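User: two proteins, same treatment. go.

Assistant:
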Amino acid sequence: MPSSPCRLLIVDDHLMLTQSLALLFAGQPDLVVVDQLASGTALLEWLGKAVGAAVPADVLLLDLHLPGPDGLTLLPTLQQYPQLRVLVFSTAASPELIERVAAAGAHGFVAKSADAEHLLESIRRVHAGQRVFPRAPAGPPPRAAKLPSHCCACTAFRAGSGK
């Protein structure tokens, strides 16, 4: 593990979440929040203030659903900052999306449904240079249950909309 504290940049458009994360991280002696931003545009402006490619953060905790450019759109741009390790933190967690995030250059992915210990461990591992992605479950995907045809949400899901 790196000996210096991990400097975190949080980018999420939900103020309650970013404030809660900052409180969680404040209780960790090896983590320091350097800033909290609420949009893709604010992130690009923040990065634009960095001198050259020297960014005053080690790990970027990035939501995918942001105003302005979204997280997935930002990932290729973030590769211009090789010392900034990107950990995507999102409610959307389909295997296809996680593959896209990895292919676009993220160093890790944590679902927002994860517990605090998993998030903290993932941040530390990404800071240490590891890639952190959920493993695909072994074996075939679970079979869909038979659902009544009168249920609107279930019918839409069965039809492939996923909602």
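Protein 2:
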Amino acid sequence: MDEQLQALVDALQGILATLDPVATLPSSSEDLTSILLQLRGYLEENNTRANDLLESHRAQLTSRLGDSGNRLVRLVRDFEYDAALDTLQKILPHTDGH
């Protein structure tokens, strides 16, 4: 029994190690802003991790940001990082929780 339990714990730890910690559901405007700021950094660096981050949060971003979120998704998917960054800069002032 102890061996089976340890095998289960080891398997779960392996799975948890592969999960992206930023792929959690944003629960507040502060969380959403944090994700968008991270996305901005990737876009500024022309880093393709922008695509991974955006895909991890696509549903939340599009539901919370509407048309702007849909545009952002399309631009990032098309690797139009400069245009995506312009769109993101317009979104960010509206996500500060005020």
